[in-house]
Amino acid sequence: SIDVATFTRQTGYTALDYGFVNTASTKSAITYIDGDAGILRYRGYPIEQLATHSTYLEVAWLLIYGELPTPDELAAFDNRIRRHTLLHEDLKRFFGSLPPTAHPMSVLSAATAALSTYYEDESDPHNPEHVEVNTIRLLAKLPVIAAYAHKKSIGQAFLYPDNGMSFVDNFLKLNFGVLSELYEVNPVVSRALERLLILHEDHEQNASTSTVRLVGSTGANQFSSISAGINALYGPLHGGANEAVLSMLAQIRDSGESVQRFVERVKNKEDGVKLMGFGHRVYKNYDPRAKLVKESADEVLSELGVHDPLLDLAKDLEEIALNDDYFKERRLYPNVDFYTGVMYKAMGFPTRMFTVLFAIGRLPGWIAQWREAIGDPQTKIGRPQQLYIGSPERNYPGV
Ligand code: ACO
């Protein structure tokens, strides 16, 4: 047997695989997906069980270290994260140099890249102590940066983290608390947000995770790799879809167009319009995360006493699409993003924060995948081939 590089060199064969539809870039022991059966497992545990019984930090540990933590391990992990939540005061001023109209995703990626400048002496990807402390820093500080991106976008003062609170409660307070006012956490909202974050924690080699691994394969540190992942997540075909779904629903409502007519336009591919929140590269069945989100959406809206016509619109769209041959033939089902936006909106997050919430959810997965790649002796710098289709050799005029 010979390795792929030798085979390519000796035979001259190169696989052309746009979008890497059939090319594995790595072996991984973290997440298992069976897209035809609609199965998702983290380290072997079904997502349904984790979303119901676990916490964000427990799942983060599971993804990163491979096993569920003991109660003592979890308490120590949680405690260490709480003690790393503060941002350098200079970094807080960095937010002021960005325009007030800045999209919170751009703020998050820029501030994450900027975070690395504070730890340059402790960012060797091959030093286990550096890797460990930066894992803690990322988990502790990115939610604070995310909340500050939110506060900046609405012109409110930044709050200091309250390290007496749990991870999710603290995050809610940083986003919705106001200086000098008591902030009371609604436990139903807190649990629903925790569940949403758990559902997003990993999803094997999606575009942003592959980006994190690719950037990491060059020897870049955790901060730089994850900042690149945030940028990859921003696009509307990936994490940006949750924002795009809400814009799509609002547009249908405001235009007065019927749901049926909108679906017809999607099917006719008029102006390239897509049913955002539908379809997935891997799931050719109902996305198991979307099922859980849909259940939570009803629960949270009812707890908050919100009746959002956009949720009704989403349900109508789903029903029409699932019974339509166009979607059936292409095996297009709701993905995780289809119902999350309605929930985030009910919780009070502005639309532009939705993808930021996805990023905070996905953070433990990015960290786990980056660490797995760094620790794998077979990891090489990622460097795809191309098939050159340009001009043959020719001479510069006059030569
Ligand atoms: N609405 C309408 N048609 C669609 C949709 C959609 N949402 N998704 C796919 N199709 C159609 C395509 O037009 C294509 O039709 P054709 O065979 O007539 O040309 C067929 O289904 C196959 O689609 P591809 O684009 O080849 O599928 P691919 O696996 O490359 O794309 C993707 C997957 C990007 C998720 C796509 O389904 C899409 O754009 N969905 C909308 C955006 C979205 O919700 N993204 C979030 C994904 S989940 C996540 O990142 C968390």
TrEMBL record:
Pfam family, any one: Citrate_synt
Gene3D superfamilies cross-referenced by the UniProt entry: 2.20.28.60, Citrate Synthase, domain 1, Cytochrome P450-Terp, domain 2
Pathway this chain belongs to: Carbohydrate metabolism; tricarboxylic acid cycle; isocitrate from oxaloacetate: step 1/2
GO cellular component: cytoplasm
Catalyses which reaction(s): oxaloacetate + acetyl-CoA + H2O = citrate + CoA + H(+)
GO annotation terms (biological process): tricarboxylic acid cycle
Active site (catalytic residues): H280, D337
This protein's record includes keyword Transferase: yes
GO molecular function annotation: citrate synthase activity
InterPro entries: Citrate_synth-like_lrg_a-sub, Citrate_synth-like_sm_a-sub, Citrate_synthase, Citrate_synthase_AS, Citrate_synthase_bac-typ, Citrate_synthase_sf, Citrate_synthase_typ-I
Protein name: Citrate synthase
Annotated organism of origin: Microbacterium schleiferi
